[in-house]
Amino acid sequence: MTNHITTTWLGDMKFESTNPSGHNLFIDAGEENGGKSEGYRPKALMLSALAGCSGLDVASLIKKMKLEVDSFKIDIDANLTEEHPKYYDKVAMHFHFYGSNLSEKKLQKAVDLSIEKYCGVMEMFRQFSEIVIETHFHKK
């Protein structure tokens, strides 16, 4: 399957990018780089893609496993190299699950399945980053 996107320059440092979902997004540089901060930063968008990819897997598995989870979030801290081309050489992903009846073992299995088997963005990141995954359970 081939995905096709078109990214169009809107002037200055701003671009609009299509998406197969039909929802477009804007990409822009910060003011320090000649932009107006009117869009996403490309490298940060990669981290959102990583969290989103794994998050969709975990949400699907929560549903399939019929697990009780009030909410969950994924925090990512990534180290950017100092030399050009700058890239993320170290990435730490923190999965936070909230609820009064969390099945820690099954939720950990859902995270493991995502990061080891299903998440294609994770597999791409493995090509250039050292990745650390931590799972945190917050019982109410």
UniProtKB/TrEMBL annotation:
Domain of life: Bacteria
Name of the protein described by the UniProt record: Osmotically inducible protein OsmC
Biological source species: Flavivirga eckloniae
